[in-house]
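Note to self: keep these together.
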Amino acid sequence: MSQFLALATPAVVLCGWFLRSRFGVAAVACAAGAVSVAATFGVWAAGRWAESDRWTGLVGLLELASLLVLVVVTLRAEGGRRGAVAVWTIGGAVALWPSRFQGTGTSGDALALFGFGSALALPTVLVGLYLRGLDDARRRSVAAARRSQRLELAHDLHDFVAHDVSGMVAQAQAGTVLAASDPVRAAALFERIEQAGLQALASLDRTVHLLRSEDTDGPERAPQPGLAELVELTERFADSDRVVVRLDAPAEDPAVPREVAATAYRVVVEALTNVRRHAPATRAVDVRVRREGRRLTVRVRDDGGGAAAPSGPRRGGGSGLVGLAARVEALGGTLATGREGEGWQVAASMPLTDR
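Structure:
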């Protein structure tokens, strides 16, 4: 009769494994450990096994292996009180299992068997905790990557959408003046406002969609604009604000890494946006992007509009310049802003190679 008790725990493990999604791995492990302890008491009552009985010994080893595997799976999948109770239950079952055999009735044998059972369970506990630590580290890494991606998208929202919206405001202000005196030019301005609005809405929709996405393997982001797009950027700025923009920049340079070129574009966007916001009297802006040795330098300077320029220090672009400075510094570069003559200058310098 006692030999059939060896099948009790493997049967519970097998049935519980198919029900783990409903009750949880810790519940299955706790039930298996409790059944193993009960089987040990049953063997004591019905008669202990002989060491020469290979069938019960093999089934018992299968029982031990399944219990130890459950320890690893439980510690990896669940923590807290449920996991601790399950592990303690299985630890007691493993420690009691050797006492099912004959010749283990003395107190000294009982202590030796308890130590043997504890030695069997300890490595699996360490393995389970190690795997749980790896899983936690991976989850933290994924969460940090998602936060970083969302912050970068938020900066995109500021850099590009705010630039388009500020252009729309400037053109709308000019359109109200021209509406009565020159309806043709006013109509052209309103068409440009419509185009800028559609572009801003498209950027906003794309950014919000990516912010809401929880799948890190989702759709890839569109390629970031670089040096080649500076011509279009400065032309749109000049058309909307009637400002002379002098651009001195290479259309494309293979020696400039993509991240550096995208950041240079962002520097120009932020600088032009701040000119539109804080220096409406500006009549000329110089944009110079050059490769000087192993560094790329970006300088955007406005004339301040002469007498119409504000006499005191102008405020910067708020959080835009702060985020931009962090992005430039992350590439190993520097960003500086300040008054230059009657106007204002934004200057950045970034290395062309990894630090």
